[in-house]
């Protein structure tokens, strides 16, 4: 019973924060997540390894604000572990560890372990595995929706044509606020 009360308080807290901070996610009036087109024939093994965040929607959930580098490692047929590092807002070292479970519906859709009982999707919309990836995530609770997109690269930089390709894919979904995408600083990184 205490766990239910804590979960309800958490949902209420998230609802309050999400309504008070519009930059947390896309601020579409639609409260449902879009049905996105996932990368066809996605090969998880080719996706594993290091990815750098080139662009992202701002989020207070994510403490790493610059030099974001994530290493993806498939530890079993169903599980991917991610070790991320970079710098927080103060310029101090920041790290994060998480796991994703590969969906039975499509390997291009994984469920992240954000909190117990809350598993936002990690959806690969497009990638060539060697240079760029276009990622979407959306989670809706009643009238509250958090939607994010990311542009990733295998290097700390990415040619503008590939960034534009991801932005074009994201713009196919009216709920995604392309204007909210910001460059993730990748300068003076270790």
From TrEMBL:
The signal peptide stretch is 1-20
Which residues belong to any copy of the Lipocalin/cytosolic fatty-acid binding domain?
44-186
Q: Name one Pfam family in it.
A: Lipocalin_2
Q: Which GO terms describe its cellular component?
A: cytoplasm
- Keywords, ordered alphabetically: Disulfide bond, Signal
Which GO molecular function annotation, any one, does this entry have? pigment binding
Question: Entry's InterPro entries?
Answer: Calycin, Invtbrt_color, Lipocalin_ApoD, Lipocalin_CS, Lipocln_cytosolic_FA-bd_dom
Reading the lineage from the top rank, the first entry is: Eukaryota
One Gene Ontology term of the biological-process aspect is: response to reactive oxygen species
Keyword Disulfide bond applies: yes
- Which residues of this UniProt protein bind substrate? 116
**Which protein family is named in the record?**
Belongs to the calycin superfamily. Lipocalin family.
Under what name is this protein listed? Lipocalin/cytosolic fatty-acid binding domain-containing protein
State the organism of origin. Answer: Meganyctiphanes norvegica
């Amino acid at each position: 019973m205490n766990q239910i009360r804590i979960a309800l308080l958490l949902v209420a807290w998230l609802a309050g924060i999400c309504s008070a901070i519009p930059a947390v996610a896309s601020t579409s009036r639609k409260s449902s997540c879009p049905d996105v087109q996932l990368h066809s024939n996605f090969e998880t093994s080719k996706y594993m390894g290091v990815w750098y965040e080139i662009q992202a929607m701002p989020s207070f959930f994510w403490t790493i604000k610059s030099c974001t580098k994530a290493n993806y490692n498939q530890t079993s047929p169903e599980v991917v572990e991610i070790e991320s590092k970079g710098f927080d807002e103060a310029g101090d070292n920041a790290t994060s560890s998480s796991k994703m479970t590969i969906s039975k519906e499509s390997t291009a859709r994984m469920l992240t372990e954000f909190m117990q009982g809350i598993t936002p999707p990690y959806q690969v919309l497009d990638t060539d595995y060697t240079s760029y990836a276009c990622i979407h995530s959306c989670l809706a609770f009643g009238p509250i929706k958090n939607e994010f997109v990311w542009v990733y690269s295998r290097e700390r930089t990415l040619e503008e044509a590939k960034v534009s390709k991801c932005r074009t894919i994201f713009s196919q979904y009216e709920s995604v606020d392309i204007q909210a995408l910001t460059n993730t600083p990748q300068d003076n990184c270790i």
